Amino acid sequence: MSKKDLGSNAYLDQQRAILNEALTDAGLDTLAVRGGHLRSPEGEHTEAMFMTSSYVFDSAAAAAARFSGENPGNVYSRYTNPTVRYFQERMALLEGGEAAVATASGMSAILSTCMALLKAGDHVVCSRSVFGTTNALFTKYLGKLGIETSFVTLTDLDSWRQALKPQTKLLFLETPSNPLCEVADVPAIAALARAQGAKLVVDNCFCSPALQKPLALGADIIVHSATKYLDGQGRCVGGVVVGAQADMDEVLAFVRTAGPTMSAFNAWVFLKGLETLRLRMDAHCASAQKLAEWLAGQSKIEQVYYAGLPNHPGHALAKQQQRGFGGVLSFKVVGDREAAWRFIDATRIFSITANLGDAKTTIVHPATTTHGRLSAEDKAQAGITENLIRLSVGLEDVNDLIADLARGVDAL
Ligand SMILES: *Cc1c(COP(=O)(O)O)cnc(C)c1O
């Protein structure tokens, strides 16, 4: 969002000045509740939902000045919308970036970043352990446009280094990874990107800014699926990109041209979600830790993957980079696919669904759902075995969640 796209008139300018002064040096919780919200002259207390596709002008001359960019302000909601702008400004504040651009989904946040920053002939290095659809976007669609992607092992710095080419423009990763909670050394990979003149993009979906600040760790751009923890209650699909003003100007230019815009309604829901983000994330982390420890003590559970366990290979790095270990964990049961399915089917509280980052705990069998389209070889490389189960730990009473896990263990 460049300066000329900010809603602007004497009243809003005054509101912005008051807000900016109040939020100087504010903590994360204050930014999550107050950040970005400019009141209209109606004096509403909560953020208003501007359900309007277009905006009117005082005169034909004013319309011309607005369209030409000579005067700042709203023209059409594919370009700017006040509620969407509140969300963008709040996300930029929370992630510590200069600007943010909201998008219709997490996938369109990734697509818009790539379309803004890449061209035919450019090369991308991407972690193998990314969201399955992200992998498909790079391989199938960007590949068709002449943008080649090499996939590397998230935790192996040498594999990142060896994949770099003179035409590498973008490095892309998720940390911690899904579903095995592998942790990337973000500062080290950011240094590789910088030396190459490439940009590091981090998908911060699993931690959210309440637990991890990738820009402070050296990343250039953050993408989010707002669908997950930013909403936190499984209601809306959305995404956001955060980074330097110059990069976000390019991303916004793509979004307003191609149209994967966030709706005002969804932006409003995400603003409400952000107000409780840190409280929710702390509760997700506390319960996930307890469930991981409980599972680790069961003889019918072969292995537990959660960076909060001291024996997890990413434990020390996660402690340095993250404020908490997150709400997602996975585990392998003793047995095969049939045993894993029996475990899942024996639970009563968990929802059997691939969604995550919800107040409701979800359970899924990655090998036949989220990662079902991978070849046997890719599954093996990603550690997705038939006896693996993923949990996204919700906000229910932790004792009830342990009781549900016990039903699964009893079925083994
Ligand atoms: C869900 C998800 C996405 C895609 O987001 P949508 O909002 O579903 O488009 C991207 N990255 C990660 C890590 C995700 O979990």
UniProtKB/TrEMBL annotation:
UniProt similarity note: Belongs to the trans-sulfuration enzymes family. MetZ subfamily.
Protein name: O-succinylhomoserine sulfhydrylase
GO MF annotations, alphabetized: lyase activity
Gene3D superfamilies: Aspartate Aminotransferase, domain 1, Type I PLP-dependent aspartate aminotransferase-like (Major domain)
Major enzyme class: transferase
Role description: Catalyzes the formation of L-homocysteine from O-succinyl-L-homoserine (OSHS) and hydrogen sulfide.
Species in which this protein is naturally found: Simiduia curdlanivorans
Keywords: Amino-acid biosynthesis, Lyase, Methionine biosynthesis, Pyridoxal phosphate, Transferase
PANTHER family given in the database record: CYSTATHIONINE GAMMA-LYASE, TRANS-SULFURATION ENZYME FAMILY MEMBER
